Amino acid sequence: MRVLVTGGAGFIGSHLVHALHQKGIPVAVLDDLSTGKRAHIPPDVPLYQTDIRDLNAVLHAFQDFQPTHVAHQAAQASVKHSVQNPCKDAEINLLGGLNILEAMRATGTQKIVFASTGGAIYGEVPEGRRAPETWPPKPKSPYAASKAAFEHYLEVYRQTHGLTYTTLRYANVYGPRQDPHGEAGVVAIFTNRLLHAQPVTLYARKEPGDPGCIRDYIHVEDVTRANLLALETNLEGTYNVSTGQGRTTEDVLYTIARALGTTPRVTYAPPRDGDLEVSVLDPTQLQAHGWRPQVPFEEGIRRTVAWFREQTQR
Ligand SMILES: NC(=O)c1ccc[n+]([C@@H]2O[C@H](COP(=O)([O-])OP(=O)(O)OC[C@H]3O[C@@H](n4cnc5c(N)ncnc54)[C@H](O)[C@@H]3O)[C@@H](O)[C@H]2O)c1
C-alpha cells in the first residue's frame, strides 16, 4: 500500500500521516499549505505543494508518487467561509475533489477514503436522538452541500469506473494541532484563550446564559484509527465517526478549565447565525467493523491541553 494524503499538512491529515509513517507505510502529502503547515509532517515525508484545483499538478503528483490509496482530507473546511464564498467552497471541495478522482482514474489508483462531515450533513438532530447514516443529508450550508454532493460523485465513480471508496462522516474533531484562530474548533479556541488568560465567549443554544449547543466531540486519534481501518481493510460505504454522546459547549469549557486549573471569565452571547442546536451521530455501523472510540473526553482534553501548553512555552 502507498498512501497519498491530501490535506496531510492540516490538523486531521497530519495525524494520519504520522500514523502511516510510524507503521512504515509509504506516504506522501498533497497540500497547498493554505491552512496546513510543513512542520506538521515528518521531514522525510514527501510534500507535493499543490492546489487540488490544478488538475495538471494533481496528475503530476499521482504519476510521480504512484499511490494505491488516497486519504482525501484536503478541503475548504470552514462553514462560515463557505457561506461568504460558496463558489470557492465548491471549486475546492467539489471540483478539486473531482480532480482527485480523475487523477485516480488516470493512474489506476484503487481506493479513496473521503473525509466528509457528520457534524454538518444531517442538519438539526432532534434532542436525545443520534443521526444514523441512513438519514438523508439535509445540508444547511454550502460546505455541507459540497461535501454531500461529492459523496454522490464517489458512488457514481464506483458504478461507472469501479472505484472503491469509504466515506467517513466525522463528528466534531478535536486534539493537538487544531487551529485555535478559526471560528470553529471550540476546544482549540477555548484552550488557547484560557492559556493566555483571555475571556471566552459562550454562544447560546437558545437564550444567552444557557449551556450552549450540543455536539459530539471525537478525539483526532480515534478519527485517525477510523482512517487506518478504512485504508487497511476492504471496508466500503459510508460511516459516522463519532462517540454518540452529546456535550454542551459549557461542559467543554469547564472540562478544559479543570484540566488547566483555571477559572474562566465567560461572556454569554446570543445564538450564532447558522449554528445547529444539536448534532450527535450514531457510531454503531463503524463499531460493527471493530472500531471504537478509545480516548475518553476528559483524557482527550488533558492531552490537548498539554499540547497547547507546550506550544505556548516554546
Ligand atoms: N475538524 C473537524 O471537526 C472536521 C469535521 C468534519 C469533517 N472535517 C473534514 O476533515 C478534513 C480535514 O479537516 P481539518 O480540520 O484537519 O482542517 P485543516 O484546515 O486543518 O486541513 C485541511 C488541509 O487541506 C489543505 N487544503 C485546503 N485547500 C486546499 C487546496 N485547494 N488544495 C490542496 N490542499 C488544500 C489545507 O492546507 C490543510 O492542510 C476536511 O476535509 C474537513 O472538511 C473536519
UniProtKB/TrEMBL annotation:
Q: Which InterPro entries match?
A: Epimerase_deHydtase, NAD(P)-bd_dom_sf
What's its EC?
Answer: 5.1.3.2
Gene3D superfamilies given for it? NAD(P)-binding Rossmann-like Domain, UDP-galactose 4-epimerase, domain 1
The NAD-dependent epimerase/dehydratase domain, residue ranges: 3-241
Is Isomerase a UniProt keyword of this protein?
A: yes
The kind of enzyme this is, by top-level EC class, is isomerase
Indicate whether Transcription regulation appears among the record's keywords. no
Alphabetic keyword roster: Isomerase
The Swiss-Prot or TrEMBL record annotates one GO molecular function as: UDP-glucose 4-epimerase activity
Under Pfam families, the record lists: Epimerase
* Family in the record: Belongs to the NAD(P)-dependent epimerase/dehydratase family.
What is this protein's record name? UDP-glucose 4-epimerase
Q: Which organism is it from?
A: Marinithermus hydrothermalis (strain DSM 14884 / JCM 11576 / T1)
